[in-house]
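Board notes, transcribed. Complex of a protein with adenosine-5'-diphosphate.
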Amino acid sequence: MPSGTIKVNKPPPMPIVGPPPKSTKYKGVKHTIMVMSGKGGVGKSTVAVNMAVTLAQQGLKVGVIDADINGPDDPKMLGVDKEKVYADESGISPVDTKYGVKVISMGFLLPTEETAVVWRGALRHKAIQQFIEDVVWKDMDYVILDLPPGTGDEALSISQIVPEVEGVVIVITPQDVALLDARKAINFADQMKIKVLGVIENMSGFVCPHCGEISYIFKTGGGEKAAKDHNVPFLGRIPLSQDVVETADEGVPIVTRNEKMKEIFSEIVSKITQKTSA
Ligand SMILES: Nc1ncnc2c1ncn2[C@@H]1O[C@H](COP(=O)(O)OP(=O)(O)O)[C@@H](O)[C@H]1O
Ligand SMILES: [Mg+2]
């Protein structure tokens, strides 16, 4: 070593401590609830969004994670489909909606509404992990996870990433096949050791737009039966209503427009909060 050079002792290498325990970054959320179903198109996103808005109307801080990477519908349903997300050193900020709910979705990251996400399971897992861990969710009373259809990869990913999912709400429609799917969702939750907060029967009866009378196009009572058979709570019925479709397209959650739906969702949500607030 040439004279005059100061010898600097390098610090010892950091010990390798292994992967951090699950979800160390997902902090400050009191209750995490997953909305799932055995199949698609039964109204999970409708239920997740309106449940979230109902909770926010009660003065609670609520976030929605749209875990449907291939079919992200929540931004549109919450009227923020033109927004983008921002990130800084502290993490990714969820998008604020005018209904007091914050939301994160793959929809905010796509160049256009028509862009298809063609990702394999591992990438979808990564995206969901980021929505959970890298988004600033602190000080939330409730975070609602809106799942893609079925009991596949995403549901599994979430139960691996967030050990503190407090419960699952299962949405079904009244037909027999849907009941079969509901059983799958209940069994999935059992296997994952996640509490089933209850079953909601959506599209249960049709509200006539003219006279307001409800006709039962499909059968009814199936959700209640599935809940009873599996010894899980029944949370309520949501009728099929033209208003739901119209308001969803306009980005207005139905509970902010329709008194009857507001009442129905309030009852459902109060059953859920009774089971989760500790
Ligand atoms: N109770 C309802 N009455 C009328 N339309 C509904 C109702 N629930 C859901 N829908 C409509 O059905 C479609 C599928 O609902 P969505 O919530 O996207 O289901 P999922 O998330 O399970 O795929 C949407 O167009 C939605 O507006
Ligand atoms: Mg959906």
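Residues 107 and 113 are 7 Å apart (CA to CA). The radius of gyration is 21 Å.
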